[in-house]
Amino acid sequence: MQVWKEYQSKNQERFLNELLDLLRIPSISADSQHKADVARCAEAVRESLLKAGADKAEIVPTSGHPIVYAEKNVDPKRPTVLVYGHYDVQPPDPIELWTSGPFEPVIKEGKIFARGACDDKGQMFMHVKALEVMTKTGELPCNIKFMIEGEEEVGSSNLGKFLEDHRERLKADIVLVSDTSMISMEHPSIESGLRGLAYMEVEVTGPNRDLHSGVYGGAVRNPINELCRMIASLHDEYNHITIPGFYDKVKVLTDEEKKAINSAPFNQKEYNEELGIREEWGEKGYSNLERTGTRPTLDVNGIWGGYTGEGAKTVLPSKASAKISMRLVPNQNSEEIADMFRKHFESIAPKSVQVKVTAHHGGEPVVTPTDSLAYKAAAKAIATTFGKDPIPTRGGGSIPIVALFESILGLKTVLLGFGLDNDNIHSPNEKYDVANYEKGIETIPYFHKFFAEMTA
Ligand code: BES
Ligand code: MN
Ligand code: MN
Q1: What is the pTM of this model?
Q2: 225, 290, 318, 320: least CB-packed within 10 angstroms?
Q3: Tens of pLDDT along 32-76?
Q4: Thinking of the domain 2-194+365-454, which architecture would CATH place it in?
Q5: Cβ < 6 Å from ligand 1: which residues?
Q6: Which residues have a beta carbon within 5 Å of ligand 3, which is an ion?
Q7: What's the CATH architecture for 196-250+296-363?
């Protein structure tokens, strides 16, 4: 709509500067030293919602980091959209690999570089600015609720309780989330699924203390060697995961689903070049898009033990540890998979070591419908502002709270993400293209408009 477009272009520069201000706050949820920064960021988000025209916006404390909750009501007869996002960010390490400060945002070649630029401050803030565009032009088509949390990157452990405690307040017709990616500006797409997650930590203990690797080496089992052998055995020669029962509940794709997934544009050569890898890898019998979108995985995220300092120290260590995550797909269940992992990992350990397995946070996989009115409204919004119909894709990432929107609130979700896979989220030099930020602000109001029209 012309009024929206005019308002946005008149305020373009301020919209960008306000995002940069938000990016300057190091709201690292994992790091307790930044607790005050996280709280300060919540307050900044609350104020921005009020300025954008929300009727009320409040900080809801939790036993972890606070949730920002806001509402803008226009008419009880109109539908209500619940917008979810997160204002917390991942730690910036390794800091030396950044070309500019992670919390000193800069714009280079049309890209905003900062931790959280894409995940998720940039994407979340598009909704705040879209609210402003709609309220200041007097063209707000539906009621909007905002729930912006500060613990997504550490597992959203307090948000489930918030949903349970506020079912009435959170009543809505659909959840709208921008925290995923699309293929490219030329090939806009909408993710129609997220993988689940089971995150484990293992510790293997051998002798009761670190030993001289000459005096004892060869006669005492080395826990690092053993941990590596155990981890290596978790995949077979076809890169299938060897945990018994692991695939039992995995939904087999129909030929139609396979075809739809593989019809998205994808170029393996460009993919390899962009990542600096020489050849493709993955589970035998599946394409790259099937592997990331529809198949479960098991990956070591970190491994440590023994001596890792400067120079060489000869030691046969007492302990070795690793953090191992599994991405899950429908209909796997994170607790069942965590149990299977534990039993299997304990069973493959030789008597000469002891194994301790602990589970960290988990989350369930989701598939969001592509035949719903909400999806159609999102597709029409994209078609309006991009001039092209979006391609439905399956995302590989996880947003564990999305499954709880359905199980606790009975709400479906639309994943209207504008990030790109090469935005370096969770990596050094995270970026978000200014063009994507602006396209998002332009597209979101159309979602509200079409959703209100379609459900009227
Ligand atoms: N926004 C991401 C998830 C994502 C990224 C989904 C790209 C689809 C495409 C989210 O902030 C995230 O990083 N989630 C974590 C899980 C969480 C429990 C720490 C993840 O996927 O590792
Ligand atoms: Mn995110
Ligand atoms: Mn993230």
Answers
A1: 0.95
A2: 225
A3: 999 999 999 999 999 999 999 999 999 999 999 999 999 999 999
A4: 3-Layer(aba) Sandwich (3.40)
A5: 119-120, 152-153, 155, 179-181, 194, 197, 361, 363, 395, 397-400, 425
A6: 119
A7: 2-Layer Sandwich (3.30)
